[in-house]
């Protein structure tokens, strides 16, 4: 069932989403050569706690950290580590979820570390653009497939591919609610969106082929061909005449 949020729910969700956004801003300030992904995790964890909130991902199905840190060819769900040190030219996707007053916010960005190869920078830019392409014209009455189709078309037109094993999702009292929001598909297909629905739209775009593999830790999702991947995610609210980005 896809939940419709009442105004009082949305008030709390906006606060959870604002904290998600602020956590990512804080992480961005700390992205530099020599910093470990474990340090980024601690920074996020401390901030979220200090705001009286909880990290949505901590212990979620056993996930061991507060944020996901995915370097270069890691698509998503990278586990922060003291051994993963940011190097010049890296890209790092950071995914943050915050649980506050009974609701979740979920958002991700891919950050550049120092000077990044222009080709890789382009992948990061196109991934962000594909999110905005995905929400173009979106409003109550649109289909989930309209988002999927727009993201896929934009990414592929730019020579990239969309990951299919992992998808966007409804969000609210639970981190992952219905509907699934794939980054590929046909317009006019899938569930119809209504005002008051909140969904996380999250293109995961690969520079090379779309196939992914999972490492033995059962979390880390990497591109099969070892080429870079980027991620961009926001939690959005569907309204009668458009969308409101909450993160
Ligand atoms: Mg996320
Ligand atoms: Mg998500």
Description of the molecule:
The chain is an alpha+beta fold. The protein has a single domain (about 5-245), classed as Creatinase/methionine aminopeptidase superfamily (Creatine Amidinohydrolase, Alpha-Beta Complex). The protein contains four helices and 15 strands. The chain has helices at about 5-30, 35-50, 120-135, 145-155, and strands spanning about 55, 65-70, 75, 90-100, 105-110, 160, 170, 175-180, 200, 205, 210-215, 220-225, 230, 235-240, 240-245. The strands form four sheets. It has a five-stranded antiparallel beta sheet. Strands 1, 2, 4 and 5 form a four-stranded antiparallel beta sheet that branches. It has a three-stranded antiparallel beta sheet with strand order 3-12-11, with no helix packed on it. Helix 1 packs antiparallel against helix 2 (about 35-50). The longest helix has 23 residues, at about 5-30. The chain is globular, with a radius of gyration of 17 Å. It starts with 6 loop residues before the first helix and ends with a strand. The mean pLDDT is about 100. The structure holds magnesium ion (2 copies). The site of one magnesium ion has 5 residues, from loops.
Quick overview of this protein structure:
This protein has 247 residues and is an alpha+beta fold.
Bound molecules: magnesium ion
Query: Could you give the count of β-strands?
Result: 15
End-to-end Cα distance, whole Å, is: 23 Å
Strand percent estimate:
25-35%
CATH fold field value = Creatine Amidinohydrolase
Number of helices: 4
- Helix percent reads 25-40%
Principal-axes geometry comes out as globular
């Amino acid at each position: 069932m896809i939940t419709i949020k009442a105004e009082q729910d949305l008030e709390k969700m906006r606060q959870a989403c604002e904290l998600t956004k602020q956590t990512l801003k804080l992480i961005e300030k700390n992205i530099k050569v020599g910093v470990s992904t474990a340090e980024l995790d601690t920074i996020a964890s401390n901030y979220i706690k200090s705001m009286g909130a909880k990290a949505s991902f901590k212990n979620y199905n056993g996930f061991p950290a507060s944020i996901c840190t995915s370097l270069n060819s890691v698509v998503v769900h990278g586990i922060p580590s003291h051994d993963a040190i940011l190097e010049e030219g890296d890209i790092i996707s950071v995914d943050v979820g915050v649980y506050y007053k009974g609701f979740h916010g979920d958002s991700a960005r891919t950050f550049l570390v120092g000077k990044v190869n222009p080709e890789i920078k382009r992948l990061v830019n196109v991934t962000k653009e594909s999110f905005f392409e995905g929400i173009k014209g979106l409003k109550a009455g649109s289909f989930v497939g309209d988002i999927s189709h727009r993201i896929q078309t934009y990414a592929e037109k730019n020579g990239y591919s969309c990951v299919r094993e992992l998808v966007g999702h409804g969000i609210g009292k639970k981190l992952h609610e219905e509907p699934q929001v794939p980054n590929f598909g046909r317009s006019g297909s899938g569930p119809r969106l209504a005002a008051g629905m909140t969904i996380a739209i999250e293109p995961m775009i690969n520079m090379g082929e779309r196939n992914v593999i999972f490492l033995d830790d059962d979390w880390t999702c990497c591109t099969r061909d070892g080429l870079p991947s980027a991620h961009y995610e926001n939690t959005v609210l569907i309204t009668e005449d458009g969308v409101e980005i909450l993160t």
